[in-house]
Amino acid sequence: MNGEPFRAGERVVLLDERGRRYLVRLEPGGTFHYHGGALPHDLVLGSEEGTTVHSTTGASLLCFRPRLADFVLKMGRGAQVIYPKDLGPLLISADVFPGARVIEAGTGSGALTLALCRAVGPEGRVVSYERRADFLDVARRNAEDFFGKLPAWLDLRHGDVREVASTGETFQRALLDLPEPRAVLDEVAAALIPGGILATYLPSTGQVQETVAAMRDARFAEVETFEVLLRTWHVEPRSVRPDHRMVAHTGFVTVGRKTA
Ligand SMILES: C[S@@+](CC[C@H](N)C(=O)[O-])C[C@H]1O[C@@H](n2cnc3c(N)ncnc32)[C@H](O)[C@@H]1O
Predict the structure, then answer these.
(1) For labeling, which of 7, 141, 197, 223 is most exposed (least CB within 10 Å)?
(2) What pLDDT sits at residue 1?
């Protein structure tokens, strides 16, 4: 990552002239085919980030290492992922810090898991429950792929998050992206330390209403709900305006703090 040239086995993001992105794993002798022709991987291998290479038809492609946001949008999927626009606000609103002990469910495809692993770092711990074995496999592959190997501080568990209650473990932060947080609230809240933060991510208002009521019943304080509307802009010398398209709705974040 420190200005080293691209090596075999790692991923590159190729950006074409129109800003389209392609995520490619580099292999000696390999070729990437797209509508702009063919690109031998060997043109990228050994070059530094930010290099422009040319396909067989002369189309130019810029080479960068993928950001977490690039990877999440292109990685293998089982369940629907949390989009980058929501990952950042989730981490900040739940105050996920380096060294934190975090519990998450469900793992799904692992988008939030990757963001959590990055945020807590090697001094932290991420325990992530997923009840579908096939989804957990997808998430495991994504984590291995993104980090190069499974982070030692990530514990992927096949099962219902309610099982955490029988482990005696405690956590400072809990993040739930599952349809019925209310159904697992007792067990997850019991594993949170007082002052700990719970964040839920839900697509519809009925789920939010139920969840907020359940969190208040469970004596969570500072319960707040928000959504993130991200509007990108088209900025050119003759025209500066919002882009015509935007993602109007993804999910609602609800955050609260456990009281003593
Ligand atoms: C929307 S997906 C999570 C996506 C994930 N946040 C991501 O970014 O890739 C919801 C997942 O929760 C899992 N799930 C639902 N209830 C669960 C429970 N009680 N314990 C563990 N996993 C659960 C489902 O199987 C599903 O894979």
Answers:
(1) 7
(2) 63
